[in-house]
Amino acid sequence: MANITKKVSWSSRADESGATGEGTPLLNGSEQPRHSRQLSEGRSIFQIGRLSTVDLEEEITSEEDSLRGRPKEIPHNEKLLSLKFESLDYDNIENQLFLEEERRMSYMGFRCLEISRWVVCGLIGFLTGLIACFIDIAVEELAGFKYQVVKENIEKFTEVGGLSISLILWAVLNSAIVMIGAIIVAFFEPIAAGSGIPQIKCYLNGVKIPRVVRLKTLVVKVCGVICSVVGGLAVGKEGPMIHSGAVVAAGVSQGRSTSLKRDFKIFEYFRRDTEKRDFVSAGAAAGVSAAFGAPVGGVLFSLEEGASFWNQMLTWRIFFASMISTFTLNFFLSIYHNKTGDLSSPGLINFGRFESDSVAYNLYEIPLFIAMGAIGGLLGALFNVLNYWLTIFRIRYVHRPCLQVMEAMLVAAVTATVSFTMIYFSNDCQPLGPEHTEEYPLQLFCADGEYNSMATAFFNTPERSVRSLFHNQPDTYNPLTLGLFTLTYFFLACWTYGLAVSAGVFIPSLLIGAAWGRLFGRLLAAITSSGSIWADPGKYALIGAAAQLGGIVRMTLSLTVIMVEATGNVTYGLPIMLVLMTAKIVGDYFVEGLYDIHIKLQSVPFLHWEAPATSHWLTAREVMSSPVTCLNRIEKVGTIVDTLSNTSTNHNGFPVVVQVTGSDEPAKLCGLILRSQLIVLLKHKVFVELARSRLTQRKLQLKDFRDAYPRFPPIQSIHVSQDERECMMDLTEFMNATPYTVPQETSLPRVFKLFRALGLRHLVVVDDENRVVGLVTRKDLARYHLGKHGLEELQLAQT
Amino acid sequence: MANITKKVSWSSRADESGATGEGTPLLNGSEQPRHSRQLSEGRSIFQIGRLSTVDLEEEITSEEDSLRGRPKEIPHNEKLLSLKFESLDYDNIENQLFLEEERRMSYMGFRCLEISRWVVCGLIGFLTGLIACFIDIAVEELAGFKYQVVKENIEKFTEVGGLSISLILWAVLNSAIVMIGAIIVAFFEPIAAGSGIPQIKCYLNGVKIPRVVRLKTLVVKVCGVICSVVGGLAVGKEGPMIHSGAVVAAGVSQGRSTSLKRDFKIFEYFRRDTEKRDFVSAGAAAGVSAAFGAPVGGVLFSLEEGASFWNQMLTWRIFFASMISTFTLNFFLSIYHNKTGDLSSPGLINFGRFESDSVAYNLYEIPLFIAMGAIGGLLGALFNVLNYWLTIFRIRYVHRPCLQVMEAMLVAAVTATVSFTMIYFSNDCQPLGPEHTEEYPLQLFCADGEYNSMATAFFNTPERSVRSLFHNQPDTYNPLTLGLFTLTYFFLACWTYGLAVSAGVFIPSLLIGAAWGRLFGRLLAAITSSGSIWADPGKYALIGAAAQLGGIVRMTLSLTVIMVEATGNVTYGLPIMLVLMTAKIVGDYFVEGLYDIHIKLQSVPFLHWEAPATSHWLTAREVMSSPVTCLNRIEKVGTIVDTLSNTSTNHNGFPVVVQVTGSDEPAKLCGLILRSQLIVLLKHKVFVELARSRLTQRKLQLKDFRDAYPRFPPIQSIHVSQDERECMMDLTEFMNATPYTVPQETSLPRVFKLFRALGLRHLVVVDDENRVVGLVTRKDLARYHLGKHGLEELQLAQT
């Protein structure tokens, strides 16, 4: 058997293709010249700045410190693609071991698996609901306590003067609470910062973001979000729920916790990327569902962000997890609110009831809604641009954990101060209604029986403020209050997003939008002979909220459904959709959505839905990485170890080739094997000694691979002796014998579609003799994107 | 140049593989023996009863009469797969012409295309909404007129005796109206019978059901459904809306009407299966949306039934079409109801308002709901089994159009008679409330100020009856009325579905379920000290309706969302979901869903979501069809004509191979060409004469292919002279140069996934030298399914 590692060195690319031309004349030779000229031109254009295009391992290098944000390691250039991110493998590795297991399994076995999938989804929903419930109750109790203390203090000092003491108390309280949240995030788990939605988007897209679905991340996230919301920052607790649900799902579905070192020996079948992804989708959906009381919206969110292949049973399971999650949350909250068993109240944020009769809309309001959508798009784009600059600044200068904590504290103090100032100088007094909708009405300098209206917006959890803006009586806020509130909250929210605290941007966006939407409604009512029913400010507040949120996050279908479910009124579907659509179109004209900006700033190789429209002139030949390191089917252990240890070309997938003994024909592709598999093989010393003493290779089970999943050790940790290096390794059983292949002439959109629809990680490019000529990876495809001046190519960097 | 048609004849399969073994020794030769033994065993088992596995053309043979239902041509065996159905090609044919066009197109060109897609979707939504509006108003007016006439007649004869005359009047009126509907369906367009949902499911799945998206079908469908509903059959007008929407979409998106022979020369880019499918999805969604006022449900319906590849922009466009459709319907209905501009009223069927306060559910009701789901599943299975037998009977004995019309008239008369009898013998009198919710209250033998309660259910359009069952006061119906109504309506509906009239099964199912659900609720209230708020009969009617509908059609996510949207109350999400899930599980234990039964009875090669669970031991080698008729890249016209004319092996896709001149190496795969493309080439005489007089091949444009789409002429209609037969044809420009291929060892689930995810029609199986060994088509995959005793193989038949 031939046991030479075949390395098609690309420095001899021209030679090789020349040789091909001679040895086995190309069959469609007549066209070859034109083609290759065209292609080599394409290549020369695109080779500028391309460092290396192989799929890199990052865990080995610098997992720990790359996350803490040392300045040189975080790229601050969105024209760069990082090589540090590994990909996930959403295509089953159909090797002999796998096929044998599947063939052994009876029909009943598959039924049991299916049932356990449902059980896992039920558990995911239940636990996610519990977590949401815990966050909600903790925030309610702690925030209630805080506002009570501050309110009493303010009331005390309103009479005697010296309200500055109240201000200091408020600011110090906020800063202290936020400090706790910032410390655990910045020092213990930086990945828990922010809403987690960009990270989950990347995970579902197929990019392995390190540590994103670990138990520690969950704990930090939950505690962090409680601190941020209680600390009075301009944040919401909804975004983090999505991340929390995903972590729960990744944990439960694996039947073990690597962090706690407990293996329950269940659900072992699910220990691979394909299955885990499905559960993480369910978890994310359960999170959305718990956050907004929107089970359908949750499913759509998961699908919109993640699933490329729609599967009826999978979707149905995801929906089940979502339903259980809302249900659990509602049930426990109903106990908490002393209405045990009343399951009709929705998720964490509740927009309250919109009665269709009172706020029906009319045909001639549609243009107004569209105009509001445009405003939302503009304001959203402004928000995103400001936040983009801020993030660049943070990446450059605020990268040390202690600086991050201090910035968070500063923001908390400023938020309290600004709020206090606004309340102090506001003279918008409103009569205290009989229904007491305000939880903490501040009288301040108002007459008895009245309360300060500005305080309703600022001196409250953001969720309550949103609800007041939607439902309070038309004349609750005067226009000045609304305008000032919009302005200050806009900048506060923009400053807050991206801090090293765990917090979401949904609620602040809604709040900003609701404020200017209400203002819009009031102005409209004033213009058109005030008092006309159709210019109900609550309705305009809702539309404004949708417009602002849409302008910032640019989600489409799922956001429409989430909004509709949160309002509990199907009637608003069309206006909300039109508004979101307008906001997206207007916003996209200027800048991308907030999540996409942050994904780009992390240089994540994110694959969009389709290849760029104008990329048909690119083919697999230009896109693929080469040279490709190939392995023989029966390969020397030393060669494998050397290949894996080569840090300069840290490949993750290796085509396996086979060469006929004694023949000088080039080797043909016969399979594909992953680095992780080779590592497991090396760890278990699955060698064949040539000196016949240990001829039989140790039999490896799928279980060995599953036990090692997902944290495969680095090659450096595996010791291979000099004797062992001389042994051979038979890869036949372990390699995927039927990898997907494409010919070199395949157009980029076609390659892209194959990649995206099947969730591939590696795609082998072969010539017409079935010889390996290249390998397409996620990064090779993610490099091409549509810029302002047509197709652009991103550079790859080892950041 | 080699110009021999390469026909790998399978009688020489053994020889050939032997030759392969000699000529170019297989590289993984060591394993070959075990493999091939295993495989040949598999093959021998599976070859029983397999007639031929090639993708057949049906338009040529018997499109006209196969539809009219001659007994021998309609299979009545669900263990058979018909070969008469062509497949659709949801994978772009990336030939040189296509790529050149795409490469020529600028970024602005793609933007314009995108905008026109949106415009088309808007148009689809608008027209679908208009059609729904037309149907609704026509039904309202005509049914109102009919019931008024009958009511006056009954009132006249109640006093003087001789109600039998009223009965006759009623029965004759119904029969006459139904006769019109049945005649147009049975004689003019049989494909318009039924709800059309199975047909649209098949279309979106990738099966070309002849004539299903034609204008004539739409006209017949619309008129037919009006007649059926006005004729008092136990049917609904909702199912046909989905079909109507799909036809509108298929028409609008092509920018021309083949039936009307009008070509508007617009949207020419969309004239291919891929694009058309997307629009048909949007049309189906718009139909659902108009029918139930459920835009999100519509999108989910389309996705659940059709889309295998989820694309954000596509989904968003589908949603847009749905929204526009509901909006249009609401707007025009608001004008019709003299409430112009009030857009808050939902679709065709309106479940009325469920106030959360009055009908909130509680934790301990969940088991009751699940029990109701089980009942729904049982009753649904019974319904389906009865209808299955009835359909078999109809296929065998009621296949002539005139018989079909007579059966429809009989059912109409029986329906009227049964209704009349039930009303006549019912003594359930209820006081006429002040709000007059009944449109046509019949006093009959009741006291003054009272009305006959049975008449509310029977003497009304089914939509109104559903609403009364949901919302009337708890004591409106007595239990006997409800029980009898359930019983009679169950059998009537079961008899009606499958008649040669165009009508849906949604509303009758809802009605049956609502009746027994209400009965359930009343009994429950009676058991648990009557008057307790939680056993509100309306709530149980809703749950019963969901259970019954779920038990019959077995839809999951989309049905949940449709029900939730139609009730306009998100709170019911969880119970409805649990009920539908239970109904599906219980029902699936006995028999498949109604639509699937009808699809199977038509022997349609329908692909499910995933390959059967236990099919991992099958590989492409066993599944593929062979021999494969291959063509040379430069082929003799005569050979092509002969190949296409061969009626015994009516292939639709041909791998194109290339052989090196003078070499004896076997030919390698270099492309794939479709029958339809060859037909166009022959029609345009794109020949190269060898005698150099006409050396240059006529240049063909993509436009020529688009103009011929989708009704390509049969080969028989193309005259090729003897001289021309000697010419050559260069396929290089027209073939898809990069078809997807798999090696022979690929497992069935892997092949299936590739097929399903990419919407393929042909998949070429190659050996490791890139030579064609087989072709996998939709029918090859659809043959395998899970039966009671594990994996079963369906037979293929030329029915």
TrEMBL record, chains A, B:
Amino acid composition bias (Polar residues), ranges on this chain: 1-12
Main location: membrane
Subcellular localization, as worded in the UniProt entry: Membrane
GO terms assigned for molecular function: chloride channel activity; chloride:proton antiporter activity
Keywords, sorted A to Z: CBS domain, Chloride, Ion transport, Membrane, Repeat, Transmembrane, Transmembrane helix, Transport
One GO location term (cellular component): lysosomal membrane
Domain of life: Eukaryota
Pfam families assigned: CBS, Voltage_CLC
Bilayer disposition of the protein: Multi-pass membrane protein
SMART domains referenced in this protein's UniProt entry, alphabetically: CBS
Transmembrane segments: 118-139, 167-188, 218-236, 279-302, 314-336, 366-390, 402-425, 489-519, 540-564, 570-591
Family membership: Belongs to the chloride channel (TC 2.A.49) family.
Protein's recorded name: Chloride channel protein
Organism field: Sparus aurata
Gene (name only): CLCN7
